[in-house]
C-alpha cells in the first residue's frame, strides 16, 4: 500500500466493526423467528431492487463462528451487532423465545472467547410484524412494548454485555418508514412519521430507565445518523433557511430531546401545518432525556441544500422530498467535482470532524462513538479472487484522519466502528450495494478479506495509521 503520514489515536481508543441482524443473519423462519416489517416489505413486489430479501443474506446465523474468526483476524476490539426482535420475542410481546436468545448467547460467548467486546443494538429496524399491524411506531403502545423487550434481552445477556444502544437511526425508521415509505413498513403519511419519531425516542428513554434500574453499571446510549449541513450559497437567506430546516429535521429534532429534553421550537413551527405535536405527553421529554453513558453517531456524508427552485427536480430515494416533512421544497445539491460513493453519496470527511465538534460544543458532555462509517463501492474481484478496493481504503483513511482532527479539537470521541464487517442486504437496494471490508459471494457464502480489511487490520494493530 502507498506510504502515508502516520497517525496515532489516544490509548484505549476502541476499534470495532458493525452489522445489523436483518442484513446478515438469514435463517428468517428458523428456531421460532417470526416475520418483521422488513420480511413483509422485502417480499412485497417492487419494494426492493430485484425482489431481494434477507431470507438468507450472509447466513451469519449459521456462520457466526467463521465471522467472529474474521473479526479476530482483523484485530477488531468490539463488535456492534443488533438483536432481531422477532427472533427473541415472536410477535413483539409475551414470552421470550429460548432458541432465539440462545443464538445471541452463543454469539456473545464466541466474541468473549476471542477477546472481542460485544456491543448490542436493541433495534435496527426489524419491528415484529404483529406490532406494525397494531399501529407500528405511530402507536404509543409500541414504545412500551420495546421497553419490555429491552429489559428481557438485557436480563438474558447483561451478565456478559456491558454496552447497549437502544435504537439505530430513528430518523430512518420514522421518516423513511412512515413518511416517504421507501423503507419498511412503507407507509407514506408525514403525521405518522412524526408520531413514530416521538415514540421511538420515548421507547429509548423508557428502555434506558428500565435497564439502568436493573443494572446501574450498564453503559447505555442511542445511535443517531447525523450530517454536516451546508447552504448552497452562504450569502443567500433562502439557502440559509433551507440549511436551518434540514439541520432541524436531520440533527436537532433528535439531539435536542435526547440531550436537552426539548424539541427545537423553530422545527415545531416548521411542522405546525403537519402536526401539533399532540403525541407529546407530560413527562415524555424528561423520559427521553434520561442520562446517557454514550452517544453513537453514524456519519456518511454532508447535505448541501438550497431554497426551492421549480426548475430543479427532487432527488431520489433517501433524499426524496417526502423524507423531510415540512421541507419538501428544499433542494439537495451535488457539488461539481466532489467524489461520490456507489450510493451516490458525496465523500466529505471534514464533515465528520464538523459533526463531532458541533455535538461536543453545543450539547452536554457525553462520550461519543462513531458507530457506523463506511462506503459502498462497485468492487472488482481480481482473477486471483482478491478485491483491491482502493476507493474504500482512501475513504476510511480520510475519515480516520477526520476522527483524529475532532479529538484534537476537543471532541470526546472514544471509538470507531467500521461499516460494515461484511457485504450484506442493503435494504431497498437489495444486494446491489457492497459496504463490507469482507466480500461475501452470495452464491457460495465464501468470505474474502478486501484490501480495506487488510488496511483496517493495520489500523487496529497500530492504533492508527502507520507510515
Describe this structure in words.
The chain has one domain: TIM Barrel (Alpha-Beta Barrel), CATH 3.20.20.80. β11 (368-372), α14 (390-408) and β12 (413-419) form a beta-alpha-beta unit. It is globular, with a radius of gyration of 21 Å. It is an alpha/beta fold and 467 residues long. α8 packs antiparallel against α9 (190-214). It has helices spanning 21-24, 37-42, 60-74, 85-88, 98-113, 129-133, 141-157, 170-178, 190-214, 237-260, 265-270, 284-288, 349-362, 390-408, 451-462; strands spanning 7-8, 14-18, 78-82, 117-123, 163-168, 219-225, 228-231, 294-298, 302-306, 331-332, 368-372, 413-419, 438-441, 446-449, 464-465. The chain has an eight-stranded parallel barrel with strand order 2-3-4-5-6-8-11-12, surrounded by five helices. Strands 7-9-10 form a three-stranded mixed β-sheet. It is 39% helix and 15% strand. The chain has 15 helices and 15 strands.
Quick take:
It contains 15 helices and 15 strands. By secondary structure, the chain is of the alpha/beta class. The mean pLDDT is 96.
